[in-house]
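FIELD: query
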Amino acid sequence: MEPALPDDVVAAVINYNTAELTAECVRSLLDTGVQRILVLDNGSANADFERLRSQTSQPQGRVRVIRSEENLGFAPGSNFLIEEALRDTRCRHVLLVNSDAVVDAKGLEACLQAMRDSRHDLMGGRMLKPPIEGQAPSVDSLGITLYKCLLASNRQSTADAYLGPTGGFAIYSRAFLEEVKQLHGHVFDPAFFCYAEDTDLCVRARLLRFSVGYCDQAVAYHAGQASTSGEYNDFILYHGIRNSIWMAAKSLPLSILLTHLPWVVLLHGGIVLRHALQGRWRTLWRLYRDALCGMPRVLRDRRVVQGSRRISAEEFRSHIDRQFYERRFLHGAIGDLFRHSRRAPRV
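FIELD: result
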């Protein structure tokens, strides 16, 4: 029997050539008792869209599939779904879920209850990787952590600073969505296309002093990067780093940027060295060139964001983790450099 969830939650899911996974995500949402689910097909191949439509046609009235002929990207696509959700006057919360996630009914119920009890405007929870045979599920994400190099990553421990929920599973209040759109002109920055748009939104939410909560209960099992083949590639490098530069330049207070500048320089020096040694010169050139070319727009947006903030830079500083960067990725990057140096021919 389905859980009795309040009738004020609208779930939003984006599909891009992941019909089977998206249908499984939708079924898990139906099992939680969510009554209204919006699915945007983001310019998928026709065959994938037809599979999606056939597998989500029932029950009628609870799932609505909307087709876009072009790939809008995660940020503009999510904005579109949020607009559609808010057209429903009953909607008080929008649940944003990745298409490759399976939602846990008890976790969602606990998350919504904690959100209402504490009157949070943004809410996240414990996302786990699907269990491997014979092993317990491992952590995928406990939300977003912003590190002192001003690059964000998936939070791996509750001891790490919590910026806010990841876009893979996030619940937003109607009041927050309407106000941030009114103040900044959008919910997610559409220029980001995908990656770091959820970090940018959480930073702006903190600057506006909205209440951000976390429920340490498993809310979803996340396969991870299904629409980008699950591997770190040039697409992820380009959008992830370019957008992180834009996020910092637009949304972080000036004193934060200045005091963290040495760490930022160290980070980007490491990024260039690591990926240049891997032969990604063209992607590096393109991402830093495009990040610079986009700065006039970013700085115009910065005036709006900083003009509307309601907390001081010192108050915001408490949301930045003291670590340079997430240990797992940092160790991986250092390992890549050592492995390359050992392979290099000796003269």
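FIELD: remark
The longest strand covers residues 212-222.
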